[in-house]
Design goal:
10 strands, single chain, alpha+beta, 4 helices, 5-stranded antiparallel beta sheet
């Protein structure tokens, strides 16, 4: 004998079950259309406003240290490389996407800081540098594998806004290696060296 007989199933129970299932499906749909995600996840996966997905890193750095982004500096570079970079290869660390970030952590600086970077690129590229969300300068690379070193000043006020100093590099001219490549894998520059020291 079945556990229930359809003719004895109360109508109100059927309606209640239907309403409950419909309500659950509406709740799932609402969560799918407006997920509760942190800002970095939302920007990369949902809103597509960035090609640089933030990831946790040690951020350990000693002021004045030059970090190599060639294979010999792999370990030190990994501690400050947030996103938008490939692993280091023989000619440097390639940028991936339309922006990249580095993050260093140290005691609150007593004065302004100087940021040194050395880049190269196979094509002409423009690079916009920001520190803790404030633009600190622009640089142009001529292409043809010419190495370009630049120095940018970060004021004490900007450097002290957060516990870490986050340097973002944006690439207005980032290009697709081939037509089937997604925007998150655009290429622009190769980073060779990075250093922060008191100005």
């Amino acid at each position: 004998m079945p556990w229930f007989e359809p003719r004895r199933w109360p109508c109100w129970l059927t309606y209640a079950l239907t309403v409950g299932i419909a309500g659950f499906e509406m709740m799932v749909l609402a969560r799918a259309l407006s997920p509760d995600a942190d800002a970095a996840y939302r920007a990369y996966f949902i809103d597509r406003t960035t090609t640089c997905l933030d990831k946790p890193i040690p951020e350990t750095y000693r002021l004045g240290t030059t970090v190599s982004f060639l294979p010999d500096g792999r370990r030190a570079a990994a501690e400050i490389r947030v996103c938008g970079w490939s692993n280091p290869v023989g000619n440097g660390t390639h940028s991936i996407g339309q922006s990249s970030r580095l993050r260093v952590k140290f005691d609150k600086p007593p004065n302004d800081l100087a940021v040194f970077v050395k880049f190269t690129s196979s094509r002409p590229q423009r690079v916009v540098l920001s520190a803790n969300g404030r633009v600190i300068g622009h640089m142009s690379l001529p292409g043809s594998e010419v190495e370009v070193e630049a120095r940018f000043v970060v004021s004490r006020e900007v450097a002290g806004l957060q516990e870490s100093l986050e340097i973002e590099f944006e690439y207005p001219d980032a290009f697709l290696p081939n037509p089937r490549t997604s925007d998150t894998h655009r290429r622009a520059v190769r980073l060779l060296e990075f250093r922060v020291e008191p100005s």
